[in-house]
Inverse folding.
């Protein structure tokens, strides 16, 4: 399962639908209007279909790949989703919306994640992370990513992405 916290327009969800074989792709978004937009896009473009690798097309009669959840990331429903997610994506969702720079939100989410799963943090600078990640996550971001093709101009963009493995919970 892939989960995007603060999915807003749903772009990450749509990319996951097109680029992965994830059986479930879930966007957690607190704003009801953004959820409506995402649901309209999913419906309009038929992304509610299930990917079939054998025949490489989308079968629209399944409706179990992309789901939009209109919830706070700290809700019980969201924590249940996070506890099952294999990849959780956060694109700086709390810095601007939380009184404590997202500390309580980050801690709640990090405590809810499935041990061994992965977390992708996008565009979050070290100084803006309000918790000690070492208590929850081990960084696995490649130091020297392999780049294919003649144009490497986009490689600087990769610096905005950090990958982590969720640690076993301490008792």
């Amino acid at each position: 399962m892939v989960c995007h916290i603060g999915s807003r327009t749903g772009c990450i969800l749509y990319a996951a639908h097109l680029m992965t074989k994830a059986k479930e792709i879930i966007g957690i978004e607190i704003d009801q209007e953004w959820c409506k937009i995402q649901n309209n896009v999913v419906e309009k473009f038929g992304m509610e279909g299930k990917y079939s690798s054998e025949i490489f097309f989308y079968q629209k009669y399944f409706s179990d790949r992309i789901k939009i959840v209109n919830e706070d990331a700290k809700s019980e429903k969201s924590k249940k989703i996070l506890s099952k997610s294999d990849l959780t994506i956060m694109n700086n969702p709390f810095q601007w919306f939380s009184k404590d720079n997202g500390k309580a939100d980050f801690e709640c989410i990090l405590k809810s994640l499935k041990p061994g799963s992965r977390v992708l943090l996008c565009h979050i600078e070290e100084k803006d992370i309000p918790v000690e990640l070492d208590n929850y996550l081990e960084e696995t971001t490649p130091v020297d990513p392999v780049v294919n093709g003649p144009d490497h101009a986009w490689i600087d963009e990769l610096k905005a992405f950090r990958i982590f493995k969720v640690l076993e919970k301490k008792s």
Remarks:
- Residues 49-63 have pLDDT under 50 and may be disordered.
- The first strand starts at residue 2 and ends at 5.
